[in-house]
Amino acid sequence: MTKINTETETVVKKILPYLQRRGYDLSQDLDFETAVNTTDRYTKGYIDILVTLGKDKPLFLIEAKKISKTLTVKDRDQGLSYANSKGINVPFFVLTNGIDIHCYNTKTKTKIQWDGKSTEKIPTKEQLKAVIRTLKANPHETNIAISRDLSLPFRPGLPLRQLNALFYKCHSAIRKIEKNEEYAFSDFSKLLFLKLLEEKADIESDFVLPYSYRFHELAQKPASEADQVKDSVLSMIESIIDQRAYGAVLQDKIKLKNPKAFQYIIKELSGVSFYDCSLDSKGAAFEYFVRATLKGKKLGQYFTPRELVQTMLAIVGRKKIANAVISNSEGLKILDPACGTGGFLVFLMQETIAQVTDMLKSREITKATCEKAKKTIKETIFFGSDANEGVAASAKMNMIIAGDGHTNIQREDSLAVSAKNWNINTPDCDLILTNPPFGTSESESLSNADRAQFPIQSSKGQYLFLQKMILALKPGSGEICTVIDEGVLNTESGAPLRKWILQQCRLKAVVSLPNETFKPNKINVKSSLLFLERRETPDLEFEETYKITISKIESLGYLGSGEKIRGFESSKFFDEIATKLLDQDGKAHRAGYNWEAFDVSSSRLCKDKTNRFDFKYWNTEVRTQIKNLKNAGGVSIKELNLITTARGSSPSAENYVDEEDGYALVVKSGSNISRQGKIIKDEADYIEKSVYDEYVEKSTEQKSNLNLIEKGDVLLSSTGDGTLGKCAVYDLDTPAIADGHVTIIRPDLDKVDPYYLCDYLRLGFGSVQITRSYTGSTGMIELTPDQVDNIVVDLKESKQAQKQLSKKLRALEDKYLKTLEDANELQTQAANLMQLV
């Protein structure tokens, strides 16, 4: 991907959004990179932006410099040279570095004052006519009236990293100055809200603030007037509370006390245009404050990446909301019951408004229909709830700035029977899009009345959210698209919930998300999307048969660090997700740009005893391979194991001793089984003979192996990221037992070589089956004995062929380990050599 030069970056990221807000049409009113010849030493060059308003003769030009570069007299002279060049001859020009904007009179070489003030702004498209008339009448004029323009001076939008840094500085200042950060999020949010309102008034002509204070003016006050800054801010808040219907978001008194804190935050916020920051950046920056000030409260909030929200909308139907509004659907209701700071709702609102506006431009609807639809979208469609007061208040603020839908945001426990935004007794939700909190326990927060709402009793927050989502949907039409921890889709404990979901809903799609989806937020959870439609009446006996789309997304266009992937074609990706992923009329197994999908009959999924939903379990390619292997004579682990397949049993930690005091080795999945299929004795734990004898006695009484290991047993690590799937043959003479994370397989030596079986499980098609079968999500994955039993083994032609294959494989691994050891030795020698210099 070609890297743009620094001047172009200033134009694209900083100036064009501002010009658009000032009324200029970026495609018709501006020319870019216009070549010029000048009469001085700047003999050849390119004008960054030439403002023409579609005419042959330009009106003014903009010369851009590297972002944040200090503007010099030399830069001014270059702009002046371009302004006087042949064929250009504009009466004034603009010089900018993306932070400062200076307007110069071409004749006098001095800065122009607008309405008598040295304000950093560019005239609006409407004001430009009067400016040109003034300069035609007097080319030397440097104090030009632009209709008492009260608009804010230019301020740059910030990318995500810089915006996060700004929020971090403000948070740190509150902590340092106030000596208390308990209310940092709510207080900072109130001040940010004032800044956002200021920008809203600057952009929307029909929105007028009830006070005259402005952040950029307050920011210029010296430290000695910090008290005045504080008083002004408090006065602004009082004015809004008294005169605005949405003043409720500011009713809780601000807790900041020190005037220096007010002054610092006002100064920092005054230097940014939040309108020109992306929705993603603002949401992520809010997320910083949420995590920094609410840490340890186990509320489960974190920011949902915009790419994921766009994906969910593409799956549901990009224009579904806009079309429903235009068709005058009565009582359309879209809910996020775990809305956080409102990222889902703000995006959906803005996207729907933009779609309705485009429909007007393309003459699909009348202006009256468009205005009516916008009013409906802003006021009556979108609803959100969050349990945390400060977070809910921020969601209200975000919605106000986006379009004043704040009255539908509630601070409430969504799972309580008293929740106002949804109720299972009056199911009225048309669409629920959400990312509910992962891993929360609701055992202490719910009353008996609250628990009575849920047919499937559980303390797990996700299980309860899913049930209430379904029960709050309109029967026969309501839909859900939700992020979900993948453990909900595959664990044994989740089977009753999954069966209930299949009875209550049509499972339209399951979408496995990339591992890095939430890693930018330091969240490492494997997750998926569920797309459901509530049935008119439950299908208790699974009588209906239909296709379910099971799919996987390879990338959403960013890395685990949050950095965007260069060259990622977002438009192509979202278009294919919207049009092809759910296309069940084509190939059963289909793939596209960073995704693949296949369809599974609902009857197959309902008949499966696990009722699992996850992609890896239903992967058609793997299932076909397993079927073919069975037909070719493959044998299951259950058939090969001379004992009942089972896990070991971990002794109490107090029974562990060192090797010299011990009798039997305790084989642990993490530390005693290597990736190369060997048993590791280094720093192993042991138990005394008396403890070992107790296991022998219990095994005899129960007529089972319990966790006793015999020489030749195959030991399979069966839990945990990074350890599950490791396998070794126990080939030591030392007595041993397995801990609770190790599965013991005692292979029938007449059928299979133990080393071959071990290698097949850790490196062969057995490892593919293990990956398909394990349950849980990141950090909490496991392979049950039943799942081990169902693994099908390719026994090859003979035991001799098995032994030869395994011997060759292990020789290569030994060579790899020796090469690695030699490389480490060379590295050590190099380091030692450097230390002698």
UniProtKB/TrEMBL annotation:
Keywords, ordered alphabetically: Coiled coil, DNA-binding, Methyltransferase, Restriction system, S-adenosyl-L-methionine, Transferase
Coiled coil region boundaries: 795-829
GO biological process, alphabetically ordered: methylation
The DNA methylase adenine-specific domain, residue ranges: 280-536
Statement: the UniProt record of this protein carries the keyword Methyltransferase: yes
SUPFAM superfamilies: DNA methylase specificity domain, S-adenosyl-L-methionine-dependent methyltransferases
Domain of life where this protein originates: Bacteria
InterPro entries with a match to the protein in the record: DNA_methylase_A-5, DNA_methylase_N6_adenine_CS, HSDR_N, Restrct_endonuc_typeI_TRD_sf, SAM-dependent_MTases_sf, T1MK-like_N_sf, Type-I_RE_MTase_Subunit
Gene Ontology MF term list: methyltransferase activity
EC number: 2.1.1.72
Domain (Type I restriction enzyme R protein N-terminal): residue spans on this chain: 12-111
Reactions catalysed according to its record: a 2'-deoxyadenosine in DNA + S-adenosyl-L-methionine = an N(6)-methyl-2'-deoxyadenosine in DNA + S-adenosyl-L-homocysteine + H(+)
Family: Belongs to the N(4)/N(6)-methyltransferase family.
Name the record gives this protein: site-specific DNA-methyltransferase (adenine-specific)
Organism encoding this protein: Undibacterium danionis
